[in-house]
Write a structure and sequence with these properties.
alpha/beta; seven-stranded mixed sheet; two-stranded antiparallel sheet; 13 helices; binds pyridoxal-5'-phosphate
Length: 358
């Protein structure tokens, strides 16, 4: 498979890396829940008590009676959720660095039968309310695909977080302009860990219609929850999931790990830990004069402009990280629920040594 441009190195899989929070394994709480679910025969296709319990825990977490669906990955969650907000002649607004635009291979357009994606500029990963208005009002004639939904990412693709005031302003603008609001929450847990607010305040109370709540990066093997706060929009979503190949027949193995993650707060503990590791990494890199950190470090990622020779040196030492995600010269250093202080310190020590020679 040729999908990412880091230099392939040794096969030392015992070393934790900074390439992606998808590199991490399954957290103990999810693993235990999976094992417990692996008993006997249980009803299929989501008609089981693990799935019911996981959905109830999500309703408790958000303190509302939302509709919950479990799917395999973020691309499916985002695409199917967006398709439920739009007709094919509509358009979806998102930032020009949104995962739905840059990393989903056109799936939002595909699953919505061709809804066009329109791009807004991102400032530290975030969309501004004025830009929403500008694009929605730019054309209102019959020849233009009618804007119908806005997609924002929380935490953003560069690891920043929309504040509650920013979300309220976006939600208000969406209501004024008759736009549905979708939130890509692949790293929603990391955003909650930073904001330290009840999840309801940064979702449905701010006007979010549907959240794709990420489990994979938070410690699951696989799986995201599509959470509809506007239940009218969830109508027949189960059919969309089935048609899109996202209805797990042995659903308990997708949903039970959510129970493990949610029932005693592991989701937030893991996110707080990953965020703390990114802060530690930032503190180690900030003093290095030839490294620049272009975005505020607010969740579990540090973007860093590192001299090319030092990047190559780090690759030769067996470190893996991406340099294709942000701007051309930026390394994305991603921490996970299982990143340790020792990992961070070892990475920083190697980098310190290499940049001192550049
Ligand atoms: C912002 C964002 N959204 C969604 C996803 C989910 O993508 P996938 O389809 O790989 O699960 C990711 C994963 O990298 C992401 O970073």
């Amino acid at each position: 498979m040729n999908c990412h441009n880091f230099v392939p190195m040794n096969n030392d899989s015992s070393r934790r890396q900074f390439a992606s929070d998808n590199y991490s394994g399954i957290c103990p709480e999810a693993w235990q829940a999976l094992q417990e679910a692996n008993r006997g025969h249980v009803r299929s296709y989501g008609d089981d008590h693990y799935t019911a319990r996981a959905a109830d825990l999500i309703r408790e977490l958000f303190e509302t009676n939302c509709e919950v669906f479990f799917v395999f990955n973020g691309t499916a969650a985002n695409s199917l959720a967006l398709a439920s907000l739009c007709q094919s002649y509509h358009s979806i607004l998102c930032s020009d660095i949104a995962h739905v635009e840059t990393d989903e291979c056109g799936a939002p357009e595909f699953f919505s039968n061709g809804t066009k994606v329109l791009l807004l500029p991102a400032f530290d990963g975030k969309i501004q309310p004025d830009d929403i208005e500008r694009v929605v009002k730019k054309r209102t004639d019959i020849h233009f695909p009618k804007p119908s939904a806005l997609s924002i990412t929380q935490a953003t693709e560069v690891g920043t977080v929309y504040t509650v005031n920013e979300l309220n302003a976006i939600g208000k603008k969406c209501r004024e302009l008759d736009q549905k609001l979708h939130m890509d929450g692949a790293r929603f847990a990391n955003a909650v860990a930073t904001l330290n607010l009840p999840p309801k305040q940064i979702t449905w109370q701010a006007g979010v219609d549907v959240l794709c709540f990420g489990g994979t990066k938070n410690g699951l093997a696989v799986g995201e929850a599509v959470v509809f706060f506007n239940s009218e929009l969830a109508r027949e979503f189960d059919y969309r999931c089935k048609q899109g190949g996202q209805l797990a027949s042995k659903m308990r193995f997708l949903s039970a790990p959510w129970v493990g993650l949610l029932q005693e707060g592991a989701w937030l503990r893991h996110a707080k830990h990953a965020n703390a590791m990114a802060r530690r990494l930032e503190q180690a890199l900030r003093p290095l004069s030839n490294i620049e950190i272009p975005h505020p470090v607010q969740t579990n990622v540090v973007f860093a402009r590192i001299p090319h020779e030092a990047v190559q040196g780090m690759y030769r030492r067996g470190w893996k990280f991406y340099t294709h995600v942000g701007s051309a010269d930026e390394a994305r250093l991603m921490c996970s629920w299982d990143t340790t202080e020792t990992d961070v310190d070892a990475f920083a020590a190697d980098l310190r040594e290499l940049v001192s020679k550049t």
